[in-house]
Structure formats: C-alpha cells, structure tokens
Amino acid sequence: MSMVPDVMRAAVLGEPGQVRIRQLPVPEPGPEDVLVRVRRASLCGTDLKIRNRAFFKDGGPQADTFVPGHEYAGVVVAAGSAVDEFRIGDRVVAEAHRGCMRCANCLRGAYTDCLNYGVRARGHRTQGMTVNGGFADYALNHVATLHHLPAGLSFDAGVVLTTAGTVMHAFDVLADLLAGARVAVLGPGPIGLLAVQVAKQLGAELVALAGTRESRLKLGKAYGADLVLNVHQCDAVSSVRAASAGHGVDIVLECSGAGSAVDDALRMVRRGGRVVLVGFFDQPVTSDLNHAVMNGITIHTVRGEGAGSVARALSLAGQGRIDTDSLVTHHFSLDAVSEAFDTYAERRGDALKVMLDISDR
User: Is the dihedral of CA 233, 257, 202, 246 positive or negative?
Assistant: First the structure.
C-alpha cells in the first residue's frame, strides 16, 4: 500500500449520543478487499440511531473503536490480490450491505436479508453498522460492494445515489413495471424526494407526495410530483383517493418513519394495492391491519439497497435523469462531525443531506 499512511483520522462512537475524532490504524485489504480513500460521506437517520446506540440490540460495539458511516464515495488506493474489477485511482461508490453469500437468502439475491447478519466469520458485513464504515479517511470494502462512479457525476452525487438505491430496491419488491401506475410517497425527506424522481423516470402516471414541510414539498413539485399535500392543511388520504378516481393509488411508499403514516398508507392505496414500508420507525407501530386484510392490501418491507439497485441508480443519474444537487444542503469537515450530527438531528437550516467533506485528494 504505497503512499498510504499507517494511521488515519476516524469518527468513532463514544458514550450514547457522542462521536469524536481519533487516530486509528489504516485497515489492510484482504485478497477480495478494496481500500477506499473516502472523499465524501453523508449522514442519515440510521446514523442518529447508531450514535445514540438505539440501533444495537446489545448496546453496540466498544466505544472509541467503531466507525459509523454507510453512505460514502471515494477513490481506490489499494486492492487485494484477487481484485481485478478496480484499479488504483478509480472513483467508486460504496453500498452498505455485503451478505454472507452462502445462506438461502443470499443465494437468491436477497443479501440485505442475510440469514447470517452480523456474523463476520461467515462473511457478512454491513459498513458502518456491523463493521467499520466511511466516517474516516479510509474505508475497507469487499469488492462486491463497490460501483464505478460514472464520469460527470460528483462525489456528492455518488453518495446521495446510495440512498436512491434504497428507492430502487423499494420498487424492486413489487416485481412489476411502474409504467402507468399511480403512486403516493409519504415523507419528503431524501428517500421520499428521490422516490418521486425515480417513480416519474420509471413511467408512473401519477405521483403524489405528502408531508409537513413546505420547502420540501416545493422541491418535490420541482422533481415532478403531480400532487403535493401538506398533511397539516388537508386530508391527504381523501385528496389522494380523489386524484385516483376515488379508488386509491396502486402503490404507496411510506418513507417518513412516522407511525401514523402506516394507516394513511393503507387508506390511500386501492383494494388489492401494495404498500412498501421504507422508513425506519422509532417505536412499535399500532395499525389497522384488519383494513389491509379486508381489502387485499399487500404490505412489503425493504431494508436499504439490494439486488444491484445502487448500480441502477448510478446508471439513471449518469443519464441525467436524477437530480441530486439540490438534496445536499450542508457540508462539514470530518473534524466537525459532531456539529454535522447535531445539524442533521435538529434539522438546522432544513437539513436534508448533510455531507462530510473528508478529503479533496
């Protein structure tokens, strides 16, 4: 690993609610690994749960050694002996999940549902969740979790497109073409706003976006939403049903993570329609599942990206069909990671995607 130092800066977990910068050894690639010089990384809601240790069932990894960060992009600086897919200097985007590739789920392509989740000895890794992630100068990835960043796309765009991968995966589970479908998206955060764009690009006939923040709803309108609804100012369920011949839409993507939105989703979708739960909920949710049963509504769930979805999101963006620039609202240095977390958690300046500028080299 010529030109790569022995130590690096890394943001590590401290006590619950704390993260700090310390020096850690630069990881060395195994035969199938790639060492990435991280250029950009961004925060998402899962990172807040990781910082607060609410994400971990057992309290989480040891403080001062665990590096969060699962949305990042950078440059290849070293690779293992079995890697020929990438060369030094390649610009790459990382996806978080690497399944064990030996369990029944992984063998059918559902590696985000790996039956050996968290068992490193069996090959499973999730960057920034079960193994160290990208809030550091360098990150170690299995070769299968990296994608070439298309020419013309910035590192900022590449990072945002890992989130777009989640959206692509949410549509994947429907196992159907989106062309001609009527779609409602609940929650105009980064996932929801990307869902509006992807739905339109895949041919949805109607896309409705519901939320509470006018600035985000306005952005959704600019992204192509046919109907934007402030749930504080109208009955979103009635409005969506009225816009879809009174029957309800074919598909609802619940991206807000708000418990009350589940019932809204069930009442917006038509009989025999489908709801995809994309957002993570802070607490257990009580919902009228009898309504789903009586109306033949199918409920799907997805966890992050999967099934090659990041690569397809990169392809769409490389064709100029996804706008990511307006989603990036804040930039911080790695040394200011605590301020970045607080900005995101408190939505200062209507924060959407908060980016860590880790390196310009």
Answer: negative
- Which of 48-57, 113-122, 155-164, 265-274 has the lowest average pLDDT? 48-57
Task: Specify the pTM.
Answer: 0.93
- What is the third-level CATH fold of 174-301? Rossmann fold (3.40.50)
Q: Are strands 33-42 and 353-357 parallel, antiparallel or unpaired?
A: antiparallel
The CATH classification of domain 7-163+306-357, taken from the options 3.30.365.10, 2.40.170.10, 3.90.180.10, 3.20.20.140: 3.90.180.10
For 298, the token pair is 């199918």
Average pLDDT, the chain: 94
Amino acid residing at 23: Q
What pLDDT digit, counting tens, does each position of 196-239 carry? Answer: 999 999 999 999 999 999 999 999 999 999 999 999 999 999 99
* Residue 175 one-letter amino acid: A
Q: Which residue in the block uniquely carries the two structure tokens 């059918």?
A: 108
Which of 161-175, 248-262, 333-347 is predicted least confidently? Answer: 161-175
Question: Which H, E and C letters describe the chain, residue by residue?
Answer: CCCCCCEEEEEEECCCCCEEEEEEECCCCCCCEEEEEEEEEECCHHHHHHHCCCCCCCCCCCCCCCCCCCCEEEEEEEECCCCCCCCCCCEEEECCEECCCCCHHHHCCCHHHCCCCCCHHHCCEEECCCECCCCECEEEEEHHHEEECCCCCCHHHHHHHHHHHHHHHHHHCCCCCCCCCEEEEECCCHHHHHHHHHHHHCCCCEEEEEECCHHHHHHHHHCCCCEEEECCCCCHHHHHHHCCCCCCEEEEEECCCCCHHHHHHHHHEEEEEEEEECCCCCCCCCCCHHHHHHCCCEEEECCCCCCCHHHHHHHHHHCCCCCCHHHEEEEEEHHHHHHHHHHHHCCHHHCCEEEEECCCC
